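Session log. Operator J.P. requested a structure for one protein chain; no other inputs attached. Running the standard single-chain path with C-alpha cell output.
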Amino acid sequence: MTVELAVAAALVADAPGAAAAAAIVFGGFTAALAYALARGRAGSPCGCFGRRSRVTKAGTARAATLAVTALALAAAPNWQPRTDQWLALGLGVALVAIALLALAVVALARELGELRLAIAPQAALSIDHEGPEIGSRVGVSERFLGGAPLALAVFTSATCSLCRALEPALELLARDSAVELRVFDEELEPAVWQSLAVPGSPYAVVLGSEGTVLAKGTFNTLLQLEGLLAAAERRDREPAFG
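Structure written below.
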C-alpha cells in the first residue's frame, strides 16, 4: 500500500517520471494478479490495493486500466503520434488484451478440470422391481449366439433422441469380442419388451452364458453401460452365479 500512496502523491505533485513509475507499478500488479488467477488462486489475499484486497478478475482489469492510463500520461506531453504510431499502440493494446484473455482461459480450463475430477460419475439406474430380476433366466437369451461370455441386450425406441446419440457407443461395444450385443427396438420387438418388463429406453440387460440376468438398468452414457458390464462380470464370478 505504501508504494501506491507514494505513486499517487508523486502524480498529484506532477513529479518528473511519476507517470512512468505508475505505469511500471500497475503493470507489475497486472502481471502478478493474472499469474495468480492462472494458478487457480482466485479469492486469495492480495496486497496490491490494500490489506483487504483479493485476487479477482476485476482487480486484474483495474490494475491493467491504471497501467495503460499511466503510460498514456507519461507519453502525452511530448508525443504527437503519427498514423503508424497509433497503429502500433493499438496493436500493443490488442496483444495485452489477448494475453490476459489467454490467462483467463487457462484459469477457466483449470477450474473445469478440477470440477470434473470432483464430480463422481453416476452409475446406471437399476431398480429391483423394474425389468427382469437379477439371477433369473429369461427367454431372450435364445436370441443370442452364445459365443461371448456376456450377452448385452439393449432396448431402444425410435422416439428416443438419447438412444440415437448413444448409437456410436453401441457400435464401439459391438466390436468387443467378450460381449455379444443385440438391440431390441420397442416397435419392432414389443414381445421382448413385455416379457422382460422393460420400463423405458435406453435400457440394458446383461446376461451370462446360461441366460442368467447378471445386471440391468437405465443408462445415459457409455460409462454407465460399461459399469453394468463390469457389475455383471463381478457377479458372474460369485459362487451363486458361477
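Operator note: The longest strand covers residues 150-156.
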